[in-house]
Amino acid sequence: MDEYTGSPTVNRRGLTRSDGLGLPPVDSSSSIGVESPSSSSFNGDSPARPHHSFRRCEPTLLASTFSTAYMGASASKANLASADLDDTDVAAITGDVPGYQDFVAQYPNALNVATQLIEKLKGKQLAVFLDYDGTLTPIVTDPEAAVLTDECRAELRALADLAPTAIVSGRRIERVVSFIQLQQLFYAGSHGLDIQGPLAGNYKLENPEQCSYQPAAAYFSTMNTLNDELREQMKSIPGSSVEHNKYCVSVHYRNCDPAHLEQVDATVTQAVAQHGGAGVRITHGKKVLELRPDVPWNKGKAVQFLLENLQKRWAPGEAPEIVPIYIGDDLTDEDAFQVLQETGQGFGVLVTRKKRDFTHALYTLRDPAEVIVFLRRLTAYLGAR
Ligand SMILES: [Mg+2]
Prior knowledge:
The protein is α/β, with parallel strands linked by helices. It is built from 10 helices and 11 strands. The protein has helices at residues 77-84, 100-106, 114-119, 150-162, 173-180, 220-233, 261-274, 299-311, 334-343, 368-384; strands spanning 125-130, 165-168, 186-189, 194-196, 241-244, 249-252, 280-285, 288-293, 322-328, 347-351, 363-365. It binds magnesium ion (MG). Magnesium ion binds at residues 131, 133-135, 328-330. Residues 131, 133-135, 328-330 line the site of magnesium ion (MG).
C-alpha cells in the first residue's frame, strides 16, 4: 500500500479564469524564430516586450501533426508495441544509432551551438526547466534506483543560485524532492499537476503558497483507489510494477515478457473502465502506461504557470525578457517543447540517442552526461556576467 493519507493540497488559486486553468490560450499562429510581439508573452496583462530570436540555424523541420501519444481511454497492445519504437534502452546504446547523425543535422547538439545560444542570453533572464528520469539520470530498470549523482546535484545547486531552475517530472513531487535534495529549486511533480516553489535560495518566495498549484486535487482519492487496485491486480503479471505518483499512477512493464503486454493492456484498461472512466486518461511513456486525471494540464501548462509566476517578481512592465530552456527526453516533454515553440519563448532540448520522427525541441543532447556539461556551460556563463 502506497497511499497518501494526508489531505490533498487544496488548489488555492482556483480554476477561475477563462480557460478554466488560469492561463491564457497559447497563440498557435506563431512559431519560434518568427518575430511576433503578440506572442512574446502568455500574460495578456503584460506589456509587449521585445521578442528574442532563437532561430535554429540549421534547416527547420516542422510538422503540424505531432501529438504526444495520448491514447484516450484504452491502451491497446498495438499501441504498446508501436510506442516501443520510441522507447530506448539508452543504457544499451554505446554509439550513435543509424539515422542519428541526420537527425542531429536537423536538431543540432546543444553543446555544439552553446556559444551561440549563450550569446543570445545576454541581457535576458534565463529560466531552466528539467525533466528528471532520462534527463538528469539514466533510465534504469528499477525506478527507485534513479538516484541523482553528487556531481549533478552540485551543478543544479550552482545553477539554481543564478537562474530559476525547475524540475518537471512525472514522478510524485515528494519522490523527486527526495532524489534531488535541493530546496532551491521549483518542482512540478505528477507531470506538472503538483507544483511548489523554492523553500530556500535566491528565488525563494515570501509566500511559498504563491507558487503552489494542484489543478487535479479533486482526483486525489480516485488516484489512490486506482493505485491500490492496480497494485493488487498487477501482481499476477511478472515483471510489472505500479508506482503511485500522486496525481498519476504509473504501470511499468519494462521488465515484462512481451507475451504479457496484452495482459498489461487489458488490466489497465479494465481498471479505468471499472470506475466508469472516472475522468482518467491513459498515456504512454517509456515502457510505462500512466493513468492521469483527464484535465487540460500537462508539463507545458506547468511551465507556463511557473513562467507566469516568475514574472510576478518584477513590477508590471519592468520584467526582463525571460528565456526558458526546457530539457527532457520523454514524449510528455513534447508538451513543454511545444509551448516554448508556440509562444516563441526560449527553446526545448531533446535528450536522445535515437532519432525521433518529430519533436518540438530545437536542439538535442545525447544523454544525462551531456546535460550536465550543458548546465555547467550555462552556469559558467551566468556566473561570469
Ligand atoms: Mg524523462
